[in-house]
Amino acid sequence: MKDIFLFDLDETLVDFSRAEETNFFKTLGDFGIAADDALYARFHTINDNLWRLLERGGISRGELQIRRFEQLFGECKITADGDAVAAAYFKNFEEICFPYRGARELLQKLAARGRIFLVTNGGARIQHSHVRLAGFEPLLSGVFISEEIGFDKPMPAFARYVESHIENYARERAVWIGDSRTSDMVCAKSVGIDFILYAAKGIPQDYDGPAADNYDGLYGMLTAM
Ligand SMILES: [Mg+2]
Asked: Which alpha helices (DSSP H) does 135-200 contain, by range?
């Protein structure tokens, strides 16, 4: 029976894409920069590429936060201070969070069956704030944020840190749930933790492992393990 639930946060329990887009238009608007969908799409691509680089250990989180704006402004001939925009974006993001419908209810049901821990890459201030805004805080037994623990998913050291900081931990009772095959799946498998892909936007055709695309289905899988 599984009773240690290790949950990713972004795109697993909260709609990170929507929060990111909302924040992008708000922050650039605050600086008087006229943003449109094409600019946002380019930002998104730059950001995704830098995150993949971060997951490979090629860039720090601090560098990523500034470089994504500097690169965007450079490419699009926008005159703005990348540092200042990055700082404002970071600050604004603390207040913008959209939990997925049913996420809190899922955690409520699971909290009655075991312990829930968040395992998330990201900035500590933002992630703690999002957990509070989403109403998840009272349902969690712990929160592991890469910035606080010093390792990013999918580094095996992230998973090892989590395993060594949960009291009464047993790997066979743990299951990791996340949307990312490059960070969550690799991280869980690096130490042999069972993994379920949560794919709210549809299970990828080329994925043949355990997966759910809605919370009822996910709950059913978790309680049958
Ligand atoms: Mg995620």
From this structure: 146-149, 156-164, 186-191
Q: How far is the CA of 32 from the centre of ligand 1 (A)?
A: 31
pLDDT digits (tens, 9 = 90+) for 161-194: 999 999 999 999 999 999 999 999 999 999 999 9
Domains of the chain with CATH codes: 4-15+97-224 (3.40.50.1000), 16-93 (1.10.150.240)
Q: What angle do CA 53, 58, 59 make, to 5 degrees?
A: 85
Separation of 102 CA from ligand 1 center, angstroms? 17
Query: Which residue do the tokens 């991280």 mark?
Result: 187
- Reference 159, options 183, 188, 186, 181; nearest CA is 188
Q: How far is the CA of 95 from the centre of ligand 1 (A)?
A: 19
Is the pLDDT score of 122 beyond 90?
A: no
pLDDT tens digits along 144-153 = 999 999 999 9
Give the ranges where the chain is alpha helix by DSSP (H): 16-30, 37-55, 61-75, 82-93, 103-111, 124-133, 146-149, 156-164, 186-191, 215-224
Q: How far is the CA of 121 from the centre of ligand 1 (A)?
A: 8
